[in-house]
Amino acid sequence: MPTIEIRGIAGVALLAGVLLLPAQTPNQTTAPAHPPAAKPIGPDDVVATINGEKITPHKIQAMRQSLPPQFQQAVSRMDEKAFLKSYAELLVMSQLAEKNKVAEHDPYRSQFAFLRMNFLAQAYLDYLNKNTPVSQDEYKRYYDEHKTEFQEASVRTIYVAFSPNASAAPSSDPKAKKPLTEEQAKAKAESLWGKLKKGADFAKLAEENSDDKASAEKGGDIGLIKGNSGGVPGELKTLIFNLKASEISVPLRQPAGFYIFKVESTRTIPYEEAVVLMAPTVQGIRVKEELDKIIRSIQITYDNEAFFNPDAPAAPAPPKPPAGPEPLK
Question: Could you tell me the pTM of the whole model?
């Protein structure tokens, strides 16, 4: 069955890749002065035979492509001969298993059934990913509702760091820069901000004062900040994208320092460009909606709660019916 084949060839291929011995150096022979040109090998030419089964380049390629993505990289490091040897081992073992009806007996029968079920579920998920349609209206709605994801800003920054241990004993290195306390860093950041508001050159102040050395060397330039990119906290993105071109932010406190930003330029990615960027996300949303429908359609009745929750206190016994009138004597 497909699952066994996929799991098996992956395992055998990896094992063979580890155990392959270095090829022996062939005997050296004098090459002819003008060796004959090799005949081109076509995709349907027979290049090997395994127990009578003809193997072509097309079939080898199909074998490789049939592997799940998580195994593609592993077998990509194997040459064709090593891969084919692994396939041959798998083929023979699977044929012996069928001959001995291994899959018809437990525990293999139960394992085989579960692997088949798991493979089919994964195959259906892959089918959903490839075949769940997304309309232009859905793309447009996502674009309109997530405009910040499609914003870009060219940004400079000045970073003033502080340390909670700044008031500790001074460093033994007299050349070491003394860390600032939070209060000192705040005062420095506010002083720099005041200079910037009066027209000071942002790049020059960043080069002279920013504790982010990588950007300080470039006048505080941190490049292009994108709304859908990671690595920048959401609070900073919100601040940046609320600034207009050439506008400077007030100092913003973060866990280890204060940031001042200057936006050089901004733009919103046009819808036509954004479609490619948002396609995986919107497709994922649609697939999740379909999966949610499937999950909601599943009907499960727990007929004995005690089995599923054995530690729960026992339900109280139903009350006894009231006693009827005493019989007449």
Answer: 0.60
